[in-house]
Please model this.
Amino acid sequence: MRRKVPGFSLVEVLLAAAVAALAIVPLAGSFTTATLGTQQVVQTTRAVELASSRLELLRGRPFAEVAALPAVSVLPAAELGRPCEGEMGRVDLVPGELVRIAVRVRWSPSPKLLEKVELATFYLNARAR
Amino acid sequence: MTPCRSRRGSLAVLLVLLTLLALLGLTFLSRTSGERQLTAQLLAHERSQCVAEAAIAEAFWTVQKTMNTTGSAWFAAMRQPSSSSVPTQTFVPARAARLLEELAGAGPPVPKVDVELRFLGAAPLAGLAADPAEKTGYLQASAAVTIGSVKRVHRLVREVRVARTAPAAPLDAFSFWICAGPGAGALRGPGGLPGTPPGPHDAAVKLALEQSWKYSWGGQRARFPFARARVSEYYPDWKTFLDRRTDASRTILLSGVVLVADTADATLSGVRLAGNGALWVTDCSLKLAAVAVAKGDLPQLAVLGPGKKLELTGYLPGSVFRGSLAVPEGTLVTEADLTIEGSVLADRWSIPPNTTLRHSRAADPFLVTLSEATYAP
Model:
């Protein structure tokens, strides 16, 4: 006579594993998504800070210096960090009186995706008439 | 333990684990979502701040451009010695609005930006050369950037100084400068104006005024009694001056104090000066080629620019030039055998042979050389 041993049958184990897998796979996906999202957030925050600090640097400068900036200049890679590239652009809205300075920072979180942050403001020649 | 209880217990453990995992996943997702929202807010804040600064810069620029236009909101406010009311104007800055659309998208909902400027605390500008209408004050700017249901308001206050930049009539031109100070930032301007004690921004002040009104505060060395209140007529260039002041007989009538602000050197040739008025030249050299002076008149000629020349040439030996000559920061050039009847004030003058000076009036100073008077061989 066969003695009944306490435990799970193979079917039960397989069923439990299937249920666990069904629950864990999306959860693992959510972890991945959350991690990528966090990285994206960190990168965006960094790009905003970079662009903002670039404009901040110009705020204390005389207008003549701001107006003499090149129309487009590439921001130094060392400042941006490896995944980013950026540039600063100047447009004379009213020559000698009002210029627009824009800072763009771009990065690729994945080969098919290109993210960018752009900030821009105007600088006034306070002595222009 | 019965098999049944064991199965139930294991199932419970499994469910608890799954629930914990699910909660953990949700926590991560919600944290990421929160971070995203915060980053989006940071970006929106920075954008709106940039746009607000741009809008305020544009509004200040608009005031600078329109304050000398009759009927503009600031026309009267900028001309009153002081004001009990608070001039206020609301702007919809077109360029800043376009910038906002570029940065935040065109909508819907349509983003918009508005600026309100208020001129507060107007007080007369102190100082020797101050005009009663010149003043200090504060421009308070509020820029409201609205994107969807979110409205962000940025405010700033800038000390400004309002100065007359041309004689009273007919130009009646004023301008304002934004003073430097903590956080002056993009709107930083010269730190002072004529009549104010020299400060760290003195060079910027001089630079600011150099274009059209260099001698508002008495010249670089304050060697000439220049008072802008004395200027009765202002000409931006020689052509206008000659067109309006020369009559059919090629006589230039000098009455009052006439100022020419042209930067191009000029030669007056074959004309006659009449009247006892003054001709002040601020930014160029002047050559008088055989210019005669009407009998009994005593014109005053002043070349005020540093390093500029006042030159009398083309006179026959023994000629007499009646008039006062002033070159307080430049060089006087005259010819040999010339008699000058009047006074001379010059920084440098290499006096040619047989030069004669004589009083026109006993009370007048005769000759003042400020740096160098040499006798030419």
